[in-house]
Amino acid sequence: MIIKGAIPVDIFSLTDQGGEIATRLRMLIPGASHRHRAKPFIETAQSSFRSGHRCIFICSTGIVIRALSPVLRDKYRDPAVIVIDQSGNYVIPLLSGHEGGAVAFARDIAQAISAQCVVTSAMDYSRPVYTIGMGCERGCPLAFLQPLFERVSKEMDAREMDVAVTYSGVASIDLKADEAGLLELSKCLNLELHLFSALALRQVEHLLSEKSETVFRAVGCYGVAEAAALCCATKLTGMPAELVLCKQKNARATIAVARSYAP
Length: 263
Prior knowledge:
By secondary structure, this protein is α/β, with parallel strands linked by helices. The chain folds into two domains: 9-117, Rossmann fold (3-Layer(aba) Sandwich), CATH 3.40.50.11220; 127-262, CobE/GbiG C-terminal domain (Nucleotidyltransferase, domain 5, 2-Layer Sandwich). 37% of the residues lie in helices and 25% in strands. The strands form two sheets. It has a six-stranded mixed beta sheet, sandwiched between helices. Helix 4 (102-113) links the parallel strand 5 and strand 6. Helix 5 packs across helix 6.
């Protein structure tokens, strides 16, 4: 299982045993950096946290709390912080569990390393809601859209393993309201097509895996597929969303998958 996301991830380990777990995680999280016995530890951890990187600490929660407490702001701005015990048996979303996506991130990690996710927040989310975001050229036929969806659907089923992935909506920019191919795809999937303005899509641009100036000049936002999937997931649950599958494309269309958790 590969864990993908748009936010940089830094993994901290303090012991050889923790370093082995971190090495496994680096293979599962593309682009993650591993800081083993970082010196100075507190300053390095705080710098990563201030930069908005998701932080995974393989050590005691006490060490993490003492290191990060001077730089904590609030649950709406702080990045996700995950703590894993030295044996790799337990994964704890310590900070920004819901708003920062730490709960969902911890669940993915626990599943990937066969550990138990320990959620201590008062409100846990038990039902994942997956949404599809799509962008396409004007006049793009179903023959380009459906194979792209089927390819991504197979990849999602392989990644999520023991979770039956069902989708709750298809989304795009409102400029595609009359796009015959998208309308036909949503009908084939028996899913509502949710449409969002460029302004609405810009509200989640900080979560995109990449920002396209070309797309911005064309439609007024920096990405359609990823942003639409995120907006749709939040619309359906009323809760923050995260990218599960970053943008993929073929010759005429793009697609991405987002996830949120319904109370």
